[in-house]
Amino acid sequence: MLKRGSLADNSVLGIDAHGELDQFSFKGMHNQVVFHPSAISKGCNILFAGSSGYFEVGAGAIVQGDFFIGEQAKVIIGAKTIFNKRCIFRATAKRKIQIGQGCLLANAKFLTMDDLPVFDMKTQQRVNPATDLLIHDRVWIAEHAQVIAGAEIGHDTVIGAWSMVVTAIPAHCVAAGNPAQVVKTNVIWRK
């Protein structure tokens, strides 16, 4: 179902734009939604809040959730990634959230920027700026985990339930906690 905006300025490719399970809202122009023909949506609410945003789902991926895409921001979901529960994505400030191939996500939350800015009193510089989020291939992010600005997760890594990832997490490990810390190394997981 399409809401606000028009396909004349925005494009939806590879999925039935008038399906009952998906909603697209466009508040800007030149936004693009691209679903690989073999990707499956189990219900996506996609809101473009600016212009020149981009949303892509790769081959064989299964996705569901709420996606907020700001001005010139991007969300890219890799091939064969599976959302087994609804996830929340908030890509803002011209930043990108990129999920690798073969990942497994369970109602996780991804934010390129904290909701409220925090500034250094002396320099007036923002201490929590917006950043890209990069989740490499074959990452498992468990129930209710949050991945926020400043995070990058290495391949074949597991993020524990209710964890908050705010920094780089290396490959082949298990990380858990708030903030997430490596608790086990030299691991591999399988779907």
Gap from first CA to last CA: 33 Å
What would you call the structural class? mainly beta
The radius of gyration over CA amounts to: 17 Å
Poorly predicted regions are 1-5
What is the strand tally?
22
Q: Main β-sheet: number of strands, strand sense, barrel status? A: 8 strands, parallel
Task: Please report which band the strand proportion falls in: under 5%, 5-15%, 15-25%, 25-35%, 35-45% or over 45%.
Answer: 35-45%
* Relative helix content: under 10%
State the order of secondary-structure elements, H for helix, E for strand: EEEEEEEEEEEEEEEEEEEEEE
Number of helix segments? Answer: 0
What global shape is seen?
flat
Strand order of the largest sheet: 1-3-5-7-10-13-16-19
Q: Please tell me the overall pLDDT.
A: 90
In short:
The protein has strands spanning 2-3, 11-13, 23-26, 32-35, 40-48, 54-57, 62-69, 74-77, 82-83, 87-91, 96-99, 104-105, 109-111, 133-135, 140-141, 146-148, 152-153, 158-159, 164-165, 168-169, 173-176, 181-185. By secondary structure, it is mainly β. The protein is flat.
What would you note in describing this structure?
With 191 residues, the chain is mostly beta strands. The protein has no helices and 22 strands. The chain has strands at residues 2-3, 11-13, 23-26, 32-35, 40-48, 54-57, 62-69, 74-77, 82-83, 87-91, 96-99, 104-105, 109-111, 133-135, 140-141, 146-148, 152-153, 158-159, 164-165, 168-169, 173-176, 181-185. Strands 1-3-5-7-10-13-16-19 form an eight-stranded parallel sheet, with no helix packed on it. A hairpin with a 4-residue loop joins strand 21 and strand 22. The protein is flat. The two termini are 33 Å apart. Mean pLDDT is 90; it is low at 1-5.
